[in-house]
């Protein structure tokens, strides 16, 4: 089973940033309002994620690290309309099979916490451990037992950069959650929670004041589709190809067809060759989009891709045209 988990880890866990992504998404699925991420050596030495979410009962700790034992979907119907970020039940067993791992938690409503160590996929015993309500996952020495993968890890700075960029992507989508990142004992990023700051404030906090001022607000819904967010105006001074954020039902994804629609609307209205910076959130009935296309869930498949392309194009085209009128 360890071997199967290690093979799965090859798909889910590419580098420290993918571990951070999976663990933070679990914290969000558990309803966390504050998430602390502590790293050492770009996450290669240590990744520790602590949340204040619902927690896991001591008896359920072994289940959480068992393969395909997700608590999030119970039927195929659920898979048709996934509302959580996770659903495959692969992340914890995969990560635990390629690291020195510990899952510590206290379920809300329980008096005490407990911890389960897993070393390279070998489960230890569940023992009591003091912990506030919520969960802490520790991942030490990533890929220590898979030298072939360890070889592909890059310099500390590079791995940290990937984590910071992913965290920025998340911060834009979840202004309701306070996020803190520390590296080698030093605070490195902090996105305020303040019990849920406005999205606009989080945008400014994340992408800078200029972005929040030199952009056009988008907010449109029709035929069960909604698009909201911000698209930069030509007055925005930054090179913007690295500031293109697209979310589908709250999930950050890459999609060529939508990226094309945005670029085309921009070019058609503003006759502007530059790539527009944007933060756009598309919402639709989860039944119209398949998120189970890729283990890391970077891509989705739309049931009616053409319609969605045209909706995005039309929405942005009309909004941008207003600025020229
Ligand atoms: P998935 O997220 O696809 O369900 P994971 O392997 O990521 O699979 O997690 C397995 C299970 O462990 C989850 O379904 C959930 O029940 C539990 N779990 C993991 N992380 C947390 C957390 N931070 N808080 C509460 N429960 C968690
Ligand atoms: Mg998960």
Automatic annotation (TrEMBL):
Keyword annotations from UniProtKB, A to Z: DNA damage, DNA repair
Domain of life: Bacteria
Keyword flag rRNA processing: no
Molecular function (Gene Ontology), one example: ATP-dependent DNA damage sensor activity
GO cellular component entries: mismatch repair complex
Chain ranges of the DNA mismatch repair protein S5 domain: 203-321
UniProt GO BP: mismatch repair
Function in brief: This protein is involved in the repair of mismatches in DNA. It is required for dam-dependent methyl-directed DNA mismatch repair. May act as a 'molecular matchmaker', a protein that promotes the formation of a stable complex between two or more DNA-binding proteins in an ATP-dependent manner without itself being part of a final effector complex.
Protein family according to the UniProt entry: Belongs to the DNA mismatch repair MutL/HexB family.
Protein name per the record: DNA mismatch repair protein MutL
Organism, scientific name: Luteimonas cucumeris
Portion of the parent chain present: 8 to 332 of 604
